[in-house]
């Protein structure tokens, strides 16, 4: 697997800082150099850092420079937060010969939680369509530290809590491989392996 210009040591240090951050939501590091180029790269022309994303129960969120402001009313109050989007990685996930965009994000609703997920987008008739999603977690409890596209697979490095760990600072991590099977994205659990956080 190729990494960006960051060395493995620097990447590990950044990942540890991201897992223990209590400030602004931080999106996982994405390797922007993966994926094929050429005629299948139309999806690369989309400005993923400046567009509107539809979040299930929260509805549309306008993102500018990778960050969206969440403000929604509840019965008792107005709740705020942020939605942070990483630069996408690209791979032909569904095997149709055309690249798809893999976009990792972090949702913060104003408390200490930082809820990550990955959404995979494709183009149909020139329009962006969500193809699939990979569930994430809250910071050290299933949050992502690295997302790459390699061939037709999505590789995810995820934080895993051990007994006694706080949600901010996982002492374990694992690498997962997600692939397209029977019309959906699924984890190849046989490829799962523990890695150093």
Question: What keyword list fits this structure?
Answer:
6-stranded mixed β-sheet, disordered N terminus, mainly beta, 48% strand, 197 residues, 14 strands, 8-stranded antiparallel β-sheet
Describe the overall structure:
- The chain is mainly beta and 197 residues long.
- The chain has one domain (8-195).
- Helices cover 6% and strands 48% of the residues.
- It contains one helix and 14 strands, in the order H-E-E-E-E-E-E-E-E-E-E-E-E-E-E.
- The strands form two sheets. Strands 2, 3, 4, 5, 6, 7, 8 and 9 form an eight-stranded antiparallel beta sheet that branches. Strands 1, 10, 11, 12, 13 and 14 form a six-stranded mixed beta sheet that branches.
- The longest helix has 12 residues, at 8-19.
- It is flat.
- The chain starts with 7 loop residues before the first helix and ends with a strand.
Can you tell me the number of structural domains?
1
Helix content: under 10%
Q: How many E strands?
A: 14
* Shape, per Cα inertia axes: flat
* Rg calculated over all Cα atoms: 17 Å
Largest sheet: 8 strands, antiparallel
Count of discrete alpha- or pi-helical segments spanning 4 or more residues? 1
Tell me the series of helices and strands, N- to C-terminal. HEEEEEEEEEEEEEE
What structural class is derived from the secondary structure elements?
Answer: mainly beta
Distance between the termini: 17 Å
Mean pLDDT: 80
Q: Give the amount of beta strand, in percent.
A: over 45%
Uncertain regions: pLDDT < 50 for 5+ in a row? 1-26, 31-40
